[in-house]
Specification:
Radius of gyration: 26 Å
Order of helices and strands: EEEEH
Bound molecules: zinc ion
Number of strands: 4
Strand content: 15-25%
Shape: rod-shaped
Number of helices: 1
Distance between the termini: 50 Å
Structural class: mainly beta
Helix content: under 10%
Length: 77
């Protein structure tokens, strides 16, 4: 279910509502002022926000230690 963001014209507060597609065009009221809020950009735009998919390199895992290259010294195990 998509999240829609609304902005209250009276108190200028943003709030999010989880609504179905069929409800997306229905008016949403600010909880504070009970006035109809204006819908902002749909959440689909924010979902595609630049997301860093970088994963940290996995250390360890059977590689040799700093003291040898044969993976067989005392510090390797
Ligand atoms: Zn308000």
């Amino acid at each position: 279910m998509p999240i829609y963001e609304y902005c209250c014209p009276k108190c200028d507060q943003n709030f999010d509502l989880l609504r179905s597609f069929s409800q997306s065009d229905e008016p949403a009221k600010c909880h504070e002022c009970n006035v109809e809020a204006k819908r902002l950009v749909s959440a689909f735009a924010t979902f595609s926000k630049d997301y860093s998919g970088l994963s940290a390199p996995i250390s360890g895992g059977g590689s040799s230690c700093a003291g040898c290259s044969a993976n067989s010294c005392a510090t390797c195990n």
